[in-house]
Specification:
Elements: H1 16-19, H2 22-30, E1 35-37, E2 39-40, E3 43-44, E4 54-56, E5 65-70, E6 76-80, H3 94-98, H4 104-121, E7 133-136, E8 141-144, E9 150-151, E10 156-165, E11 168-173, E12 185-188, H5 195-207, E13 211-222, E14 227-236, E15 250-255, H6 256-263, H7 279-288
Parallel strand pairs: 1-6, 10-14
Antiparallel strand pairs: 1-4, 2-3, 5-6, 7-8, 8-9, 10-11, 10-12, 11-15, 13-14
Helix pairs in contact: 6-7
EC number: 3.6.1.22
Domain Nudix hydrolase: 153-278
GO cellular component, one term: cytosol
């Protein structure tokens, strides 16, 4: 069975038609079946049986709410905007210990909620005039109270890629990685470039290699804080590496036998593979298979 990419597979109807209709949005909040996701800042709180913790929607809670969507049974699902004094620790590592307790669908629901809550916490003021903003469109935007400017959550595109040369692929590690851990190289797409150009630029900047034949493999939302990981492959024109040591501590070419050993968690493997949640692992599995 092919496992879904991490943070994909949420089956809620995002219900845009409810977000923009004040009466329908109010009716969704008043629905006695409505549920609200409980978070600790932006970290999940496990339920009694594991998984996410949901509470009945409390109309007496005056914090603004975000409509995550409506499930197949018609039950609205919400998450609340963080309070003005609530601390949002985007660097918290607690989430990494809790994510394995979630099903694929729960992780996808949580990932979307985390990205939205984090965005709202960081966009309380208008980028045009500096005045305070308020939630609108069911929590999927903010509007300035003074100049009326509308602001919407943004997703940052990131290319993550495997360069291949003579039946080997390139993996690398950053200084902050755990010992022995290697992954696919990645970088943000910059203004004015295509995905193919971003792949080629990042591989040259970080590893000093020139590539061609860039192809798309798959994509994955990554809520840390709100990226879209765009998985690609490329063909390297040569194996010589020149590393940007401010970004990459080490890199190496590995063959299929070595990749399969790493994916299997073999003690003799030359590196530790990315976890199942990450698209980097799927890229390696796809290539090794």
């Amino acid at each position: 069975m092919v496992m879904p990419l991490g943070f994909t597979g949420a089956r809620l109807d995002r219900a845009d038609q409810v977000r923009v209709d004040a009466e329908r949005f109010a009716a969704a909040m008043a629905d006695p079946r409505a549920l609200c996701l409980v978070l600790d800042g932006i970290d999940p709180i496990p339920g009694e049986r594991g998984g996410l913790r949901w509470e009945p929607f409390d109309l007496a809670d005056d914090r603004a709410v975000i409509l995550l969507g409506i499930d197949e049974a018609g039950v609205p699902h919400f998450v609340r905007e963080p309070g003005p004094g609530q601390r949002i620790d985007a660097r918290s590592r607690t989430v990494m210990r809790l994510l394995p307790l979630l099903s694929a669908e729960e992780a996808a629901l949580y990932g979307g909620a985390r990205s939205l809550v984090d965005w709202h916490a960081r966009h309380r003021f208008c980028a045009v005039c500096g005045a305070p903003t308020s939630l609108f469109r069911g929590g999927w935007g903010r509007q300035c109270r003074t100049c009326g400017a509308e602001h919407f959550p943004r997703v940052d595109p990131v290319v993550i890629m495997l360069a291949e040369f003579e039946e080997r692929v390139l993996v690398g590690r950053q200084p902050g990685f755990q010992p022995g851990f290697f992954s696919a190289l990645a970088g943000f797409v910059e203004p004015g470039e295509s995905l193919e150009e971003a792949v080629a630029r990042e591989l040259f900047e970080e590893a000093g290699i020139r590539v061609t034949d860039v192809s798309y493999v798959a994509s994955q939302p990554w809520p840390f804080p709100s990226s879209l990981m765009i998985g690609c492959r490329a063909r390297a024109l040569g194996p010589a590496l020149t590393l940007d040591t401010t970004e990459i501590e080490a890199a190496m070419w590995v063959d299929r036998v070595e990749v399969r050993a790493a994916l299997a968690g073999d003690m003799g493997a030359p590196f530790i593979a990315p976890p199942p949640l990450a698209i980097a692992r799927h890229l390696l599995e796809d290539w090794a298979g």
